[in-house]
Amino acid sequence: MNNALLPERIDYVGKLIEIIRNRWKAKSNKSSFADVLDSILLDRREKDLIAEQILSILFSAKFVSLLTEAEIGSNKGFFSDASAKLSFKFLPPVNEPSELRTKFDDIFSDNLDYQWVKAIPDENWIRFLDGIFPEVDPTVDEYIKKEILNSILILAQRAATLGIEPEVVSKIPRVDDLDSPFLGLNREVIFYVEKTLNSSGYTSVSENDYRHILVMISQCNSQISYIYKHKDVFGISLQLTSLVRQLEQYLKRLSQLLELLETNDRDKKWLIITQLLKEFVYAENTKYSLRKHFSTNLQLLTFKVIENTSKTGEHYIASDKSAYWNLFAKAMGGGVIVAFLCGNKTRLYFQHLPIFWEAFFYSLNYSIGFIIILLLGFTLATKQPAMTASTIAANLSNNGENPNWLNTTTQLLIRLIRSQFISLVGNALVAFPVAYGLDLLYFYAFGFHIADPAKAFRLISELNAWESLALPHAALAGVYLMVSGLISGYYENKWIYNKYSLRIVSHPKLIRFFGPVKLARIAGYFERNFGGLAGNFFLGVFLGSTSAIGFTFGLPLDIRHITFASGNFGIAVSSLENHVSTELWINTIIGITCIGIMNVLVSFGLSIAFALKSRNAKFSEVKSLIGNLSWQFFHHGLAFFFPVKTKENSDDITHEAIINRQA
């Protein structure tokens, strides 16, 4: 092999890649740029030159880095890896010139090359590769096989190392003993590689060895599946998520390389090479992508967090009239608590505290109030979308098990909408009169109203949808409502993952103080409610501190929530002793309604986007659902606000049955 001609040949390959790349950027049809590969096969000189240069590149490079690291990730940890990727964006690392990975990056240098490489059909790639490599020089062939064997050995060893990590061992029974499939896989691969290296031409000497390795890989995948299936039992973490993903990638790459060496079917070989080519180009083009890093690593964790809110969200969807009116009663209870929170916050305003302490006590006011609502079993209406969006997404992701998924999901969403409607009505209707009456009692007790006229007019003006920032502030509140739902799921998962219930009931001092029976009840209560308590606490902090943060940075930040808007309006009207014009009444009612709609749209929209992302729901499913929902609204609009029986839902299964099927 004449390596002196290598620079010229790399330039030639670069020109070929550039032709295809330019056709792709010009939005040519697939056949146009895919046919470039086929046209090369018509020119024998061109074909031989490309084949020789590719083999020259392969023969002069080390494969291990590309085969064992591309699209697999590192053991740095989630945040360390993200930090490294960010720094490499500004100051890329120095690549070893002898590595195939470096030469691969030089050839596919455009960050969008993976798009056209993936777009060219596999059959075109197979025909091209088979055409330019009718045969390979035995020396080059042996070198390539040796590099692949080295990579196989390293992949098996890395998989074994990760497979016995304490984080993984704690979730899989008996995985750290000598019968561990990860350790067994490593032993079998070492034996296989040694026998192959000692054979003539590095050819496999026994098919049984290969088959045995496949069995071990299957057992390793079963252990990984165990983690997925039992994540509701022991929770999930960023570290475990990263380890599991790496293990999956190691086992997948190991299977691909083993099959590449063992198969005698040329088309199958080229198909595997094509798949690896597409993976490598994508991996190298996106290796510093933070978006890809967060999306890939957070998906499993997000799934677990969303799943926890789904379990809580089941209680926010009424499936019959009894549950419907029960939600209304709970919402009325929530409205009563919020009315007191409105009065307390207004009095805190008149203390004229420093900005930090004002934010602190506002946050404390909200957080305590929300926790009381939770403890008493009441509801805050606009928290529902964040808790129920994942229930819809769960139904979409399991539609393969339910041929009638479109109708059942539509009916489930209709129940959610009317449940949200009656909860909003219950919150808003009660908050106003209770706040109004609270101000009257305050006046009789102290001789002055909760708010002075200036504050009362300000409270009303802040609810005007046309002349204030009420709607953007309502949207911001919707974001907080969504985030609080995620926080609830996160802390519920954290409680399970860290085995807090078991640690509490096993604590000697707590056992002596409370007794085992009472302590078990306490642990059970917190296991069921810890996520909700944390979510409500943080929601209070978000709502109470936003205005202070906006003031600090000179930004017009604040929040508007429909229930608090109704309560503030009640306090304002009473403080003004009913001297409110009809126009002001109408504008304020419209403003409160718009605030509620914005709260729900933002909270539900963001929550369901996260839920759908975590469950990989298809866009076509969402599109079909929206279409069917629109049809139902125009034909059975009343069902969106009141539980009436229609032909579509009379024979439908109940919401509880849907949830049971998902479980």
TrEMBL record:
Pfam family, one: SpecificRecomb
GO cellular component terms listed in the entry, alphabetical order: membrane
Membrane topology: Multi-pass membrane protein
Keywords noted in UniProt: Membrane, Transmembrane, Transmembrane helix
Primary subcellular site in the record, as a coarse category: membrane
Sequence intervals crossing the membrane: 361-381, 421-450, 470-491, 537-557, 584-612
Subcellular localization: Membrane
InterPro entries per record: Aquaporin-like, Site-sp_rcmbase
Name this polypeptide is given: Recombinase
